[in-house]
From TrEMBL:
Its EC number is 2.4.2.17. Keywords: Amino-acid biosynthesis, ATP-binding, Cytoplasm, Glycosyltransferase, Histidine biosynthesis, Magnesium, Metal-binding, Nucleotide-binding, Transferase. Pfam families: HisG (PF01634), HisG_C (PF08029). The lineage of its organism: Bacteria, Bacillati, Actinomycetota, Actinomycetes, Pseudonocardiales. Its main location: cytoplasm. It is found in: Cytoplasm. It is an enzyme of class 2 (transferase). PROSITE patterns: ATP_P_PHORIBOSYLTR (PS01316). One of its GO terms (molecular function) is ATP phosphoribosyltransferase activity. Gene3D superfamilies: 3.30.70.120, Periplasmic binding protein-like II (3.40.190.10). This is ATP phosphoribosyltransferase.
Length: 284
């Protein structure tokens, strides 16, 4: 039986469970449940703190886990990314009081508060900056005001928390994060590889389905070549004859973020009845 770790709280918990449900797995109904057995799929899910998930997966006790790339990098556990899941996007950045220009070198000799001390120490070392790293559990943005640090390094989503505390991000992002499926480092080809590959493929199907849409349209035959250039699909589009002579129906997957531009372009080009629909899941 495959044993899989899922975030039990925080920004990643809801979307991770939704993605697993969409991929056909049983998820918990009670937020206090710490395990769920899915006998049909031969998987047991363990609901754990996202920060702890690299430890369980790195020890080999659990086969796969969902966590944030930033948390995975901060952990010293031997784990590797198997799949990017496309949600929980954030950047991890240095920040300090607004009102002056900050550069990375300005951190030399300063106290820097963070919940991700390893990630920060590695980045400071890579830039040759020596600063004192103060480890806090959360609410890091308030630490400067409270006098324990001169600067911070923290997760930035919308940027609202930084603004609210009069802070400004500076320097290149230390890390660009999203939710990732992780496994123990070097465990590809382990005895349960087939089961791990199946869960990975199912999640990949949902990730693709969320990032793509299906486009259908009618196209005059003489414009087909140009229309295919606009919607080349993933492999190549499906083209089928229409009852009316001189027309074909075209079906192709397009990236969700470009769908409206592509629909405008097709309509301008001479396509008719351009329809966009959601994809629930797929295997590529
Ligand atoms: N505001 C946000 N927007 C997007 N992703 C976020 C945001 N906050 C956190 N994350 C992501 O979620 C993960 C951290 O999750 P979470 O906040 O649940 O952990 P935690 O801070 O260790 O736990 P807690 O805050 O409950 O003590 C990281 O991968 C981070 O990049
Ligand atoms: O840029 P924003 O959209 O404002 O989000 C960023 C904030 O969200 C996270 O905090 P969380 O809610 O996890 O609380 P924590 O500080 O206790 O970890 C993160 O640590 C930042 O504080
Ligand atoms: Mg948090």
């Amino acid at each position: 039986m495959l044993r899989v770790a899922v975030p039990n709280k925080g920004a990643l918990a809801g979307p991770a469970s939704e993605m697993l449900s969409e991929a056909g797995y049983r998820q918990r109904h009670e937020s206090r449940d710490l395990t769920v057995l899915d006998p049909n799929n031969d998987v047991e899910f363990f609901f754990l703190r996202p920060k702890d998930i690299p430890i369980y997966v790195g020890s080999g006790e659990l086969d796969l886990g969902i966590t944030g790339r930033d948390l995975a990098l901060d952990s010293t556990a031997p784990i590797e990314e198997r799949l990017q899941l496309g949600f929980g996007g954030s950047t991890f950045r240095y920040a300090a009081p607004a009102g002056r220009e900050w550069k990375l070198d300005d951190l030399a000799g300063k106290r820097l508060a963070t919940s991700y001390p390893n990630l920060v120490r590695d980045d400071l070392a890579a830039h040759g900056v020596e600063a004192e790293v103060i480890r806090l559990d959360g609410a890091v943005e308030i630490s400067i005001q409270l006098g324990v640090a001169e600067a911070i390094a923290d997760v930035v989503g919308s940027g609202r928390t930084l603004r609210q505390h009069g802070l400004i991000a500076f320097g290149d992002p230390i890390c660009t994060s999203e939710a990732v499926l992780v496994q123990r480092a070097g465990s590809n080809g382990s005895p349960n590889e087939r089961e791990k590959a199946q869960l990975t493929a199912r999640l990949q199907g949902v990730v693709f389905a969320q990032q793509y849409m299906m486009l259908d349209y009618d196209c005059p035959k003489e414009l087909l070549e140009g229309a295919i250039a606009i919607t080349p699909g993933v492999e190549s589009p499906t083209v089928a004859p229409l009852a009316e002579d001189g027309w074909v129906a075209v079906r192709a997957m397009v990236a969700r973020k470009h769908v409206n531009n592509i629909m405008d372009e097709l309509a301008e080009f001479g396509a008719k009845a351009v329809l966009a629909s959601d994809i629930r899941s797929c295997r590529m």
